Amino acid sequence: MNAPWNPARTAQRDPFVAFVCDDTTAEAIRPIATEMGWAAEKVNKGGLRNAVQTLSVSASPNILFVDLSESGDPLNDINALAEVCEPGTVVIAAGQVNDVRLYRDLVASGIQDYLLKPLNPDQLRESLSGAQTALNAPRVPESAAVERPHCAVAVIGTRGGVGASTLATSLAWLLSSRSKRTTALLDLDIHFGTGALALDLEPGRGLTDAIENPSRIDGLFIERAMVRASDTLAVLSAEAPINAPIITDGAAFYQLQEEMRGAFECTVVDLPRGMLVNHPHLISDIQVAVIATEFTLASARDTIRILAWFKSNAPQVKVLVVANRVQVAAQLEISRKDFEGSIERKVDLLLPFEPKVASQAAKLGKPLAEVAKGNKAFALLVEFASGLLACADVDSAADAKGRGKAKAGGASAGAGGTSLLGKLGAIGAKLPGKKK
Fold first, then answer.
1. Radius of gyration of the chain (CA)
2. Rounded to an integer, what distance in angstroms lies between the CA atom of residue 245 and that of residue 242?
3. Of 136, 163, 193, which one is at a domain's C-terminal end?
């Protein structure tokens, strides 16, 4: 899995080794192992602990079966196993805990499959055959992969309750499912983040561990700490105890963004507005900032302040304004015309107030964009997400011509008075930066 590759031991690898906790499991595995051409004596007693001790001093097998029945913390123990398993080892685990979250976490940590005891012969045979297929699958060379510019988006709410987290989750889901880009959702509201909750996931301790030990952050840490919502979407969120203040200089957050840039094609950061004050360096690698606001006096004031902050501190960032939870005109505290007049620019996207859709999304544990995909009022959100990718492409093209020129272009797009959708005309046809 993740142990340093040892070429001297590669030729000594066994095709299959199992470590089990009881005779019943051993007797279930041996005939199937023999059927597949493997030695029955490679089924050992001792479970996970024996597996870690054995593999720390010997070569990892091609396929490893490990019994987690005696493990008090299966996820952490699998991570310990990963430290002694060399790259290329396909791991199948078995245990007595029937929990879909545990299954997801184990698969996200790098194992091939998790089987429930007592073992079903057909399921065991199918899992071992799948492991063999994965082992023999042709490796696609990295050079054959399509190189696409990384898209880094920050979503910032002007006030609490304007729906910035809901918008961030929806954009991350759209980028991963509709645009087919591997996407990371980084929720930096350490104590009250809802990124994982909105996707019906347990946040885990990955984000708090990163803050406490920034030196641990690397590609392997990202792979283990992030919770998978789908094959193309992973979340890093937290629910830190509210009696435990988090003290950090923001270095961990910045390093997380750097590692995500290498591991994913898109990063969506749910950025609390206070971090613009405390950790302004987090914006340095962001290409597009989405300001979530509403048509109220307080939001108008704070939209003006945040726009001014970006103009002074991050002119290279393209800034888009999204008015969320927009009600009928008679119920608005400020009209759209007055709001746009006060912030001296157009609003790029309006999302209506749809309490039934929002309630349904919360009950199902799905992003608002997924639940509302049949709602015409939310159709523009899909095009808006596509526009974010195009903004990143334009920014990357400008980088190739010179960073200084790109910054000048970003300033005019971010601080100017012309909206993204207004420049598009027909949505998605052309993007800011391609026309003056």
1. 25
2. 7
3. 136
Residue 366 CA to residue 386 CA, distance in Å, equals 20
Are 264 and 185 in contact by the 8 Å Cβ rule? The answer is no
Task: Clarify whether residues 212 and 331 are in a common domain.
Answer: yes
Question: Helical H runs in 246-378?
Answer: 251-263, 274-278, 297-313, 336-343, 355-364, 368-371
Q: CA distances (Å), 23 to each of 64, 68, 78, 158, 368, in order?
A: 18, 14, 22, 61, 49
253/139: higher pLDDT: 253
Write the single-letter amino acid at 231: D
pLDDT digits (tens, 9 = 90+) for 55-76: 888 888 899 999 998 888 888 8
Same domain for 175 and 311, yes or no, is yes
Confidence grade of residue 339 (pLDDT, cut at 50, 70, 90): very high
pLDDT digits over 363-390, tens only? 888 888 888 877 776 788 888 988 888 8
Residue 71, CA atoms < 13 Å, CB-side half-sphere: 27
What pLDDT sits at residue 88? 78
Say if residue 403 is exposed, middle or buried (CB neighbours under 10 Å; 0-12, 13-18, 19+): exposed
Q: Are 207 and 175 members of one domain?
A: yes
pLDDT for the residue numbered 313: 94
Which has the higher per-residue pLDDT, 150 or 430? 150
**Residue 24 belongs to domain spanning:** 7-136
Domain-ending residue, one of 136, 169, 190: 136
One-letter identity of residue 263: A
